[in-house]
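Q: Here's a chain of 98 amino acids. Please give me its 3D structure as tokens.
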Amino acid sequence: MNVMAEEDPYLSAISSEASKVDSSEQPTLEAPGAKPAMDEGGIDLQAFEEDLKASYQGSYTFYQKLPRRTREEVFQVYSDGASIDEVRKMIMDRFLHQ
């Protein structure tokens, strides 16, 4: 059975919503693994959280549900040079094993 997206109301709704997204919007992180703004003490926690929220909403949602100490641990790993992919995996691992 070959069904086109326009014939399926659910897929049509998704397609309609996707067309509303402004393709000129760029995430705060310019490239995967890009580091947020630095201050004299190193990477800024607030900038890290803002960039995570802007670029990886799902990961940010789970990050916010972690205990404060675990969020600090995630941030420390990131500030020590872990890639954003490693950080996102760590967030999910910590969230699933609370």
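Q: Can you summarize the key feature?
A: Residues 42-98 form one domain.
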